[in-house]
Design goal:
With 98 residues, this protein is mainly alpha-helical. The protein contains 6 helices and no strands.
Length: 98
């Protein structure tokens, strides 16, 4: 799946996805996830998970941080992309989409 396809499926711009892949925390990504930019940056940079971010993952802060440390920086980016994709599916299901 390329960035354009991810952008179309998530509603996040390609520019924001490119920035995310470089390890930055774009406001558009944080907004789509419903978390503050600082929380996104802390997870991407250090693996630190705020209560908001852990809730978004559906787990405890400790478990989210352990996961973040275990997968490393590239894995944390993958987790964010996965959350973006699942968030989009969840909203589509709520309004009767696929």
């Amino acid at each position: 799946m390329n960035l354009m396809e991810v952008a179309l499926r998530t509603g996040v711009t390609v520019v924001d996805l490119e920035s995310l892949v470089r390890g930055n925390a774009p406001a558009g990504v944080a907004e789509r996830l419903g978390i503050p930019v600082l929380n996104l940056q802390e997870f991407l940079g250090q693996g630190y998970a705020s209560a908001n971010f852990a809730h978004r993952l559906g787990t405890s802060m400790a478990a989210a941080e352990e996961l973040g440390r275990a997968v490393g920086p590239e894995g944390r980016i993958g987790i964010i992309v996965g959350l973006l994709l699942s968030a989009r599916r969840g909203r589509a299901a709520e309004v009767g989409g696929r």
